[in-house]
Amino acid sequence: MTQENRERVERAARYAADLCMRTGKDQSFYDAFWERLLSHGDILAEFIYYMEKGRFRCRASVGSVTVADILVWQIDRFKAAMDQDRTAFRQDPDEMVLRAFDTMTKMAEDPQRYTMQMAADTGTDYPGKFGGL
What we know:
Layout: H1 3-22, H2 27-39, H3 41-53, H4 67-83, H5 93-109, H6 111-120
Helix pairs in contact: 1-2, 1-3, 4-5, 5-6
């Protein structure tokens, strides 16, 4: 790994820690998230691109699912939480981005589980749709 790449990874570690802090995640969440990012280099590269550019490159995927696809899928869940007045989700792009990357790393390790969840979500709102969100 080049010195420049090492520095980018170190900046990404600090950025991930900062995202976790700003969204109220504890050290164990950060540690698990960072370990999964490091074990999926393509997702880490996507995370670094987002950190540097503020947008998704969408080159990393699990099957055909990109981080932007996951973000769009999760918006329905964020909207449900906002409807229930869970303020942690209210207008918090850091939370949304962190959760999208976290989900993508988990999806890389268990694609079938997340593919089934994504296929099951209809996009319609009704009481209790997400249960214990």
